[in-house]
């Protein structure tokens, strides 16, 4: 059954070459010999992409996390063996400085997350950071000096202290 699936999924030329091979493992070995070098190159390219990816400003965290997880899944398909903790560490290192406290908390509390659990935690933290930034901006704008209303910045004259007619009137 496996041999049939393999033969159906490869090109006609390869099907013709592999038709007389009896064992599925022999077909797999032959295919690996033919295309193994391409897998190594693709794996190296994906590792380079993974290690050089940094989250850009204003990129949604979920989008960035899914991109990183996609690279890690591609590596797994290409034969790379990266344990779960290392995968989480790679994603954490790709985050901007604003997630420094999250990384510190992760390391101090020796948290253990799957990639998807960590992504959900990070999305929650992102929501808190966005709310905090909005609140901070509102406080900054409301705490700025109030503008003078209608008098054009001129001081009002205090006529009660003014000398002259009013001063004489007050003295009486």
Structure description:
The protein is built from eight helices and no strands. The chain has one domain (2-140). It starts with a helix and ends with a helix. By secondary structure, the protein is mainly α.
Short description:
This protein has 172 residues and is mostly helical. It is built from eight helices and no strands. Helices cover 67% and strands 0% of the residues.
Task: Throw out a few tags for this protein.
mainly alpha; elongated; 67% helix; single chain
SSE blueprint and pairings:
Layout: H1 2-9, H2 12-18, H3 24-52, H4 61-77, H5 84-93, H6 100-108, H7 115-142, H8 165-171
Give the tally of structural domains: 1
Work out the helicity level. 55-70%
Q: Tell me what portion of residues adopts beta-strand conformation.
A: under 5%
Determine Rg (CA atoms, Å). 34 Å
State the distance separating the first and last CA atoms.
119 Å
What's the multimeric state? single chain
Distinct helical segment count: 8
């Amino acid at each position: 059954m496996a041999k049939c699936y393999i033969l159906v999924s490869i090109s006609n030329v390869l099907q013709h070459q592999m038709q007389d091979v009896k064992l599925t493992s022999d077909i797999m070995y032959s295919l690996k010999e033919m295309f193994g070098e391409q897998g190594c190159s693709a794996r190296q390219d994906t590792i380079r992409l993974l290690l050089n990816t940094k989250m850009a400003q204003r990129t949604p965290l979920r989008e960035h996390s899914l991109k990183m997880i996609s690279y890690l899944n591609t590596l797994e398909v290409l034969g790379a063996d990266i344990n779960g903790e290392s995968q989480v560490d790679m994603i954490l290192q790709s985050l901007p400085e604003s997630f420094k406290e999250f990384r510190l908390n992760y390391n101090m509390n020796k948290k253990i997350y799957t990639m998807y659990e960590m992504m959900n935690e990070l999305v929650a933290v992102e929501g808190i950071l966005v709310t905090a930034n909005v609140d901070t901006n509102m406080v900054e704008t409301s705490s700025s000096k109030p503008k003078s209303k209608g008098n054009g910045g001129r001081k009002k004259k205090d006529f009660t202290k003014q000398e002259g007619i009013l001063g004489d009137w007050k003295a009486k």
